[in-house]
From TrEMBL:
InterPro entries: AB_hydrolase_1, AB_hydrolase_fold, MES/HNL. It comes from Primorskyibacter sedentarius. GO terms for molecular function: methyl indole-3-acetate esterase activity; methyl jasmonate esterase activity. This is Pimeloyl-ACP methyl ester carboxylesterase. Residues 4-228 form the AB hydrolase-1 domain. It holds the Pfam family Abhydrolase_6. The lineage of its organism: Bacteria, Pseudomonadati, Pseudomonadota, Alphaproteobacteria, Rhodobacterales. Gene3D superfamilies: alpha/beta hydrolase (3.40.50.1820). PANTHER family: AB HYDROLASE-1 DOMAIN-CONTAINING PROTEIN, METHYLESTERASE FAMILY MEMBER.
Amino acid sequence: MSDFLLVHGSCHGAWCWRDVIPALEALGHSARAIDLPGQGADTTPVAEITLDLYARTILNALKGPTVVVGHSMAGYPISLAAERDPGRITRLIYLCAYVPADALSLAERRRQAPRQPLLPAIQKTADGLAFTIRPEMAEAVFYHDCPPGTVTYANARLGAQAILPQETRVALGANYAGVPRSYIRCNDDRTIPPEFQRTMTADWPAKDVTEMNTGHSPFFAAPVALAQMLSDIARPGT
């Protein structure tokens, strides 16, 4: 069985994995989620939050050989973590996440997409260092296919997302290239266009790409199915 570390995307926290952790444990795995700096219970000041700090936070959470799952924005910090210390990461799993491109920041990578459905939902904070999601638009971009009560639960917890980590370019080399990786596309995603998810994985082996017919938040929309998919991907020999 595998040990999973679950890493959230923009504006979210460890709280978004509440239904996936018990589902993974029911399959015999160990699983835990973390708050990246500035999210959830973490109180790091926004001016101190960097992509490097994200990666160090992920590495500090590893207890041994670990399957690291990154949702959305977390595709960048999990990749940097693998470049810094590949020995303890047995596999990276990108869950409708941004796959880093050479010498591009996440923001630059995002702008390569053919459309930008998230932009109308974003509002910058007064200091210009972060952005938040307009509460009235959260359902449309993140949770349109999720169970009743999800939007209320999430809107009470969504936080401000530091901009600097997303504007930081990342250089990845042999360490990152040596870590096995898989991608889960979400075919009804209204945050990262599904067609762009296909573009980002166009040169990946077919065996390393799977799909779910959900929106951007399969951890709420289909947590049991997601846990089973993660378990299948992490199985030795896959």
